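Justification of resources, computational component.

The compute hours requested in this renewal are based largely on the per-chain cost of generating structure records like the one below. Each record pairs the submitted sequence with a full structure-token output. That output is archived, and it is also reused by downstream analysis tasks.
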Amino acid sequence: MSGHSKWHNIQGRKNAQDAKRGKIFQKISRDLYQAAKAGDPDPANNAQLRLVIDKAHAANMPKKNIDRAIAKASGIGGAKFEEVTYEGYAPGGVAVMVSALTDNKNRTASAVRSAFSHSGGSLGASGSVAYMFNRQGLIEILRDDLDTSEDDMLMDALDAGADDMKATEEKFQIFTDPSSMTAVRDALQEKGYDLDTAEVTMIPENRTAVPEDKVKQYRHLIDELTANDDVADIYETGILPDDDDDDEE
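The structure output for this chain reads:
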């Protein structure tokens, strides 16, 4: 039994690492798509796309994943991809928005609906949870090896055109109007800051604690959505009981 338990623990850690890696790849794929869609799909002529590709390489993202994300944006192979958003509730009443890039809306809708159903959640109509989120630009700068005080960072962010800033022990989070994110990003880079994240995202107005007895179902929903190649991003309001100590989320 002890051998089985050891294998189970190792397998559990591996599954958690795989899930975390999947979420990182998912986010990078979305960034690749957006960079290629906004400019030239050839990285030689698109500085932002080159930066995201470098980030993908640093995360050991497979080349086929990189090529697939860029192909979606450029229409290579004749497929036309659309951006689709689904809204619903996870177990425990947690609001969830799913952003997808798909060449077959029926396939994607069916898969997303199944993910909610399998986990005890429910898919809702358009607008059912969107009002719980604010669309904002988000720029994150890691504090490791950064010799900048919170006051100086705030002044630089405001000078660059940001609206607000939040500081944690690990990073500075800078919030902007969606239309200003690119300009603020460029201004901060010109000041010499190395940005970890620069994106337009959906930020929840409030958070919802996931009940202890719903955590397993909640995780299952997020994992199933993350594993879907059509899903580009997942926005949700959930707070897990162990969020402060949990590296998986």
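The chain has a mean pLDDT of 86. The chain has seven helices and ten strands.
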